[in-house]
Amino acid sequence: MKGPYASHYRRELVTAKSSILERIERATTSGASERLRSVFEFSTGEAKELIPVLSVRGDMFNARILLRRFTERDNRSGQPQWHDYGPLGSFFFDSLWRECVSPMEAVERCYTSSEPTAIPLAHSLEAFIESSDFMIAERCYMSEIISWSLKPLNGLSPGEDKVREFVGRSVDLWNIQIWFRKSLSRNKDIGQHWDYLDGGTITPDIFERSSSIADLLSDTIWNDSLKLSSRSFPELGRKLQLDFLKWQIALFRLDILGIGVAIAYMARQILEWRNMEILAVGLSANLAPDRIRNLLWRL
Length: 299
Prior knowledge:
transport; proton-transporting ATPase activity, rotational mechanism; globular; ion transport; V-type_ATPase_csu/dsu; V-type ATP synthase subunit C fold; single chain
């Protein structure tokens, strides 16, 4: 009942009739989102223009949940725990979730939004209506939201360079996941939803010609991940995510007067958020303390 999440948990105690675990998860989501929103509220100058590119990951998380709902890949009965720090915000996604019965209704709602990040969501829903394929819809969304993210980064300022690399590393992680899916697929005639995204630090042609993960990551910014003994995606994927967080947090000292401070602060909040959720789930499931410690994300 004390600490930065206390007020959010007290609110859940008063307003929610869910389990203790769900209340804790909602409180941590609400508290972390509030902190992430504060970065934009206190920013000025160039940072004010660049932070929406960093915070759009909140919209990306929410959009994928919404797409799963309409493609019947999400059978949850309650309200999702929206990440409320992106340009669209949780109210927008919650209204689509509660009020739109069909994808077409959601498309119409997106087109009436004043936020430009609603357009990629509209196009992805249209792609699903046309194809009935969740992965095509998801790739459509990711491709357009990455293009939106890169559009304001056409200058040469150090801040834009940092955010451009942030976007590039994010694209790399998406493409590496696709590469693993391709390498495990027996279907050689795979469709457009397997196509790699542009904008990463590793170009699509390198992904196409790499026959092993060592070939793919050698001589790249992700080379350090190859030191991991396991090369399976769950272990390597977690290591890549952790390396990405470490890079972001290190910017606090490397760029103390620029956008690096905001990037590092947001990364620390996301790291804390993940660990709070692990603690809540682990304690709820009566996992042994050592097991919970092993699951925590550590720098």
